[in-house]
From TrEMBL:
The chain crosses the membrane at residues 7-27, 39-57, 64-84, 134-154. Pfam families: DsbB. The lineage of its organism: Bacteria, Pseudomonadati, Pseudomonadota, Betaproteobacteria, Burkholderiales. This is Disulfide bond formation protein B. It is found in: Cell inner membrane; Cell membrane. Required for disulfide bond formation in some periplasmic proteins. Acts by oxidizing the DsbA protein. Disulfide bonds join C35-C38. InterPro entries: DiS_bond_form_DsbB/BdbC (IPR003752), Disulphide_bond_form_DsbB (IPR022920), DsbB (IPR050183), DsbB-like_sf (IPR023380). Residues 1-8, 156-161 are cytoplasmic. Keywords: Cell inner membrane, Cell membrane, Chaperone, Disulfide bond, Electron transport, Membrane, Oxidoreductase, Redox-active center, Transmembrane, Transmembrane helix, Transport. Its main location: membrane. Belongs to the DsbB family.
Amino acid sequence: MQANSRAFFLLIALVSFGLVGYALYLQHAKGYEPCPLCVMQRFAFVAIGFFCLLAAAAQNTRSLWQGLGMLSGVAGIAVAGYHVSLLLNPKASCGIDPLENWVNALPTARVLPQLFRSDGLCTAPLPPVLGLSIPAWSLIWLVLLTGTLVVGLIRREKNYR
């Protein structure tokens, strides 16, 4: 698959949206309430998928959409990395996460509360999935998706020279 093909971007979008779908499954079928950091990671996955759909549809502005997808991925990596470090070194908590009020005040939490409303604590221990915490899996997938976009951009630029 070529790094500048529609299929390349559609595959990345499909994986991103699929991961958000799995997060919704964990939330609604398994009862795992998302914390504010989880919701912010969902924003990153949705943004990567959205920008990859735009890159797949556009020919002339493909690099712009790919760059915005990479930027979304880097932001998601920062959030997921912080979340993993928070789980590895939990801080004292009074039971109220101050980030929750901010995330729930965003318009997306009112428009799509099933997807973007936060009700959990960031330090709440959830059962691992295949031996890793959910934030660790999120970090791995964000690194893979962002890395794929970066490699695709580099390969495409080499082909144009």
